[in-house]
Amino acid sequence: MANDIQDTKKEEAAPVQKEERTRERRVYNPSVDIIEGKDGTTVIADIPGVDEASVDITIEKNILEIYGKVDPEIPRDMRLAISEYGIGDYHRRFTLSDEIDRDRIQATVKNGVLRLVLPKAEKAKTRKIEVKAGE
């Protein structure tokens, strides 16, 4: 896993932490890809059914938290007879290192895919040091 971001997701066999929720919904851990580059880290999360108005991304202390709300669209006067997959919200937490510039984080959502760009802080970037001839 990338050095600048750590997933706080527990092992599958670990007991599930009970959290009080305001919505009676299933909550899934979305699948993510974490791509580390020289200028920062990109997190790509699959959150089908979520758009920019229904996703909350917060940072408190060093914890980046993603919460996506899904409201299923069932036409009026109809009911769901068969479902091929479960419908629910999405929640994921990551611990950020001090190398991430929190003020320049960017987030976009398109077609159920969340893309977070976490740029490195200037002090954390690799710099080339100029070497001069001695006197």
Secondary structure layout plus pairing:
Layout: E1 5-7, E2 27-28, E3 32-36, E4 40-46, E5 55-60, E6 63-68, E7 89-96, E8 106-110, E9 113-119
Parallel strand pairs: 2-7
Antiparallel strand pairs: 1-7, 3-4, 4-9, 5-6, 6-7, 8-9
What does this structure look like?
The chain has 135 residues and is mostly beta strands. Helix content is 0%, strand content 36%. It is built from no helices and nine strands. Strands 1, 2, 5, 6 and 7 form a five-stranded mixed sheet that branches. A four-stranded antiparallel sheet has the order 3-4-9-8, with no helix packed on it. It is elongated and about 85 Å long. The N and C termini lie far apart (46 Å). The relative contact order is 0.27.
Brief digest:
The protein has strands at 5-7, 27-28, 32-36, 40-46, 55-60, 63-68, 89-96, 106-110, 113-119. By secondary structure, the chain is mainly beta. The protein is elongated.
Give the overall silhouette: elongated
Spans of at least 5 consecutive residues with low confidence: 10-18
Please give the largest β-sheet. 5 strands, mixed
Number of strands: 9
Task: Considering the chains and any ligands shown, give keywords for the structure.
four-stranded antiparallel β-sheet, mainly beta, five-stranded mixed β-sheet, 135 residues
